[in-house]
Design brief:
Elements (H helix, E strand, L loop, with lengths): L3 E9 L3 E4 H12 L6 H4 L1 H4 L5 E4 L12 H27 L6 E8 L8 H8 L7 E6 L5 H15 L4 E9 L11 H9 L2 E9 L6 E9 L7 E6 L2 E6 L3 H20 L6 E6 L4 H11 L7 H10 L6 H12 L6 E8 L3 E8 L1
Parallel strand pairs: 4-5, 4-6, 11-12
Antiparallel strand pairs: 1-7, 1-8, 2-3, 6-7, 8-13, 9-10, 12-13
Length: 348
């Protein structure tokens, strides 16, 4: 059977790189007169396992309220810049010419643009005007894994052509200055901005994408997502996410094993979305794996924070760069709004 292979991964982050301690001090000063018991909430920053993060704007910009129109305009320009940088890097690393790209999948959940950013990428990257476009919106942190699965399927359909996957998330633009909720503060202590791209093709060398599995948990819409307010996208997520992971993941992996016809002890590689330290710990406990097996997830979280859909591709890039292929199964896993899980089976 012919499988799509992952030829390369490209990464990009905005230039404003900040220490977590800087952000904590700034947010503490910003909300000190507005949020009751703020001191009891600020350890969110200390317990995040994050050392540095990149934001699309300097800290001072976030002290003022901004309209949805303003943040949407900024999203379009900044997302295009980061998406193009990541895509060019992926193309160069795969030694693939723009003319060899037959389709582009664009994944994002932190901004709205019509036409979507992929239309502008076709022009800026000089891809064919006949390039197939598939924009995916609303999968949140699960979008990177889902995008990889869809790109692999598309690569098999367009055999001989490369598929370009691009994810870009500007999470910081969803910060709501007037939102004094704990969810907004948690998001402020965790989320960051970044973009990632990947090239897949049935030709070339790299991890082979063997299959995927999507799962939607019933009646879980309130766990994670956006509330639409006058000033844009307001974060919504539950403190129970790690508990939900522990509750459902063992069953999901058992089901995936049966679907894919493999044994879990055959899985050597684990690429998990670094949603936060408690989420990674829940992965470790649920999958019964060693902390060293997800070391790259901790590393990406520490260096870049949670960049939603892009983060799992950052983990994938670091994993492939730091480890040796052993021709064994691997699983990519990410969770997102719905509440949903996206899993990808590969061999490397």
């Amino acid at each position: 059977m012919t499988y799509a292979k992952l030829l390369s991964v490209g990464l990009a982050v905005p230039e404003n790189r900040l220490e977590q301690t800087q952000i904590k001090e700034y947010i503490s000063a910003l909300f000190c007169d507005e949020v009751k018991n703020l001191d009891r909430l600020m350890p969110i920053f200390d317990n995040s396992a994050i050392k540095t993060r990149n934001l699309v704007k300097p800290l001072e910009w976030y002290s003022e309220a901004h309209s949805f129109a303003e943040t949407s305009s900024l999203y379009e320009s900044a997302a295009l810049k980061l998406a193009e940088e990541a895509a060019r890097q992926a193309l160069d690393r795969a030694n693939v010419m723009p003319s060899e790209v037959g389709a582009i999948i664009f994944v994002s959940s932190t901004g709205i643009s019509t036409p979507t950013i992929d239309a502008k990428l076709i022009s800026s990257l000089k891809l064919s005007s006949h390039t197939v476009r598939i924009p995916i919106w609303g999968l949140g942190c699960a979008g990177g894994a889902a995008g990889l699965a869809r790109a692999a399927e598309l690569a098999k359909t367009y055999s001989g052509k490369a598929v370009l996957l691009v994810t870009v998330e500007l999470c910081s633009l969803t910060f709501q200055r007037s939102d004094l909720s704990k969810s907004n503060l948690v998001g402020t202590g965790l989320f960051a901005d970044g973009a990632a791209a990947a090239i897949l093709s049935t030709e070339g060398e790299g991890p082979a994408i063997l299959g995927s599995l999507s799962t939607l948990i019933s009646n879980s819409e309130d766990v994670m997502g956006w509330d639409i307010v006058d000033t844009g996208l307001k974060v919504r997520f539950s403190r129970d996410i790690p508990a939900i992971v522990r509750q459902y993941l063992p069953e999901l992996m058992e089901y995936a094993k049966l679907e894919w016809g493999i044994e879990l002890n055959d899985v050597e590689h684990y690429i998990v979305h670094p949603g936060g330290p408690k989420v990674i710990e829940a992965y470790i406990e649920s999958l019964k794996i060693d902390k060293k097996q997800v070391a790259e997830a901790y590393s990406v979280l520490s260096q870049y924070g949670n960049m939603s859909s892009s983060s799992v591709l950052f983990v994938l890039e670091q994993y492939l760069r730091s480890r040796t292929p052993v021709n064994k199964y691997g699983v990519m896993l990410a969770l997102g709004p719905g509440f949903s899980a996206e899993q990808v089976l590969f061999r490397w």
